[in-house]
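cron nightly-structures :: item 1 of 1
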Amino acid sequence: MEFTLSKFELRIISYLDNSCTIGELTERIGVTKGYVSRTIASLKNKGFVEITSKGNTKKVILSNNLHAVKLRTILHNRSYMPLTELLHGSGITILAVLSSGKANFSRLLGESGLSEATLGRWIRKFKEHAMLLHWDHIYELPQDFQDIKEFLQSYCAYIAVSTLKETLPEGFFITSHGFEFLFASDKQIVHKNVKPSGLTVISDLIPLMLVEDYYFYSSRSVSMEEIAVHTIVADPYSKRNLTYVTLYILKAKLDKDLFLNISTQYNVVDICRSLLDLLDTWKQSEYKFIPAPSYIKEKAKEYNIPWQE
């Protein structure tokens, strides 16, 4: 499903104070009726507008979807910024990656799918308008742009659910990560942009009985550390899931720093840090949902996974 926005789509959203006809939009903007109609159809697919008909007259109104309301408010409140230049095309793809947290150039490159030259040009453009904090090769959206971050998060979730419904209706949505998303299915999924993840991948190393499989919708390759985080995100307070993630950390010898870094992007850093503390100290966590050290050792012995105290 197409998720980028054109400059013209952004202009139309900014014009939708009240309902208006396609003819009124055409006259106001000064383009052909056909062009406006095609743009409105695209905005409807993306959940930004609704179209009502009365006789031969079609009226366009901003939808009640959270991302539509947020973007319309942003375009009004930040009219002093050239947002049609900053949120269109590849710009929204880069910002969507940053909506899940800090990112270095490599992560932005991998998750946006852009070329180095294109990404570099957009970063320079964002910097010119103070839309990026940058230090030690790490990029982040400033706190002042919390409204844009919230818009991106709600829009990404909408696109994820819509994509799942449209292309993989047998899937059960779990969470979005930029314009990527995690989902489960009780049927085997074969799709060019879908990778097995979570417990489905862990079960290749540690024999598990699964009633459903877990998948990640993305065009990039996914690290073992991110697969482990996906397992937690799927059910953060499941002792079963946390037990097998802990065993997976031991078995696959995961990069613990990378594991923690990725966990911040999915808002499960406290749980991930607790699991690593358990492995470092072999002491019971203060969180009741974290498995007991004795149980981890018992399961590790069962699966012939070595550990150190």
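cron nightly-structures :: done
The chain has a mean pLDDT of 94.
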